[in-house]
Amino acid sequence: MSTQYRTLWVKKEGGPGFVEVAVHRSVSVPDLRGEIARTLNLTGDPSTLTLHVASDQQGKDLDAALDSRHSVKDALPEGANTRIVVKGAAAAAARQLEAAAVASVGE
């Protein structure tokens, strides 16, 4: 992959695992939110989401939300395994739908 792109690992808060997303380094944080929302099949307004770099492999120890005024290059630390956890209304709604689907299978 070109050095113009970053590979990020993303998941919904409380989600089971991370999914790979490749984005151009110059993409803005708001555009990154939209790309992540599409990748994770989140419905609703992506601007309600906040993106947090996870300091641990499980995605539980989270840094402050990324600043929407920056690009990926400026907002994210360089590193091979940048993990991002998505928080917000759309992510919470997706978790509730998943829980309801699991519950209906068990009935």
Give a count of the beta strands, DSSP E runs of length 2 or more. 5
Largest sheet: 5 strands, mixed
Quick check: average pLDDT?
A: 83
Give the C-alpha Rg.
Answer: 14 Å
Show unreliable segments. none
- Structural class, judged by helices and strands? alpha+beta
Query: Order of helices and strands, N to C?
Result: EEHEEHEH
Could you name the CATH topology? Ubiquitin-like (UB roll)
What's the overall geometry? globular
Portion of residues within helices: 25-40%
The CATH superfamily name is Phosphatidylinositol 3-kinase Catalytic Subunit, Chain A, domain 1
The top level CATH class name: Alpha Beta
CATH architecture: Roll
Biggest sheet, spatial arrangement of strands: 2-1-5-3-4
Q: How many domains comprise the coordinates?
A: 1
Instruction: Compute the number of helices.
Output: 3
Q: Could you list some keywords that capture this structure?
A:
107 residues; alpha+beta; Ubiquitin-like (UB roll); 5-stranded mixed sheet; 3 helices; 5 strands; globular
Structure description:
It is built from 3 helices and 5 strands; from the N terminus they run E-E-H-E-E-H-E-H. The protein is α+β, with helices and mostly antiparallel strands and 107 residues long. The chain has one domain: Phosphatidylinositol 3-kinase Catalytic Subunit, Chain A, domain 1 (Ubiquitin-like (UB roll)), CATH 3.10.20. It has a 5-stranded mixed beta sheet, covered by helices on one side. The termini are far apart. The mean pLDDT is 83.
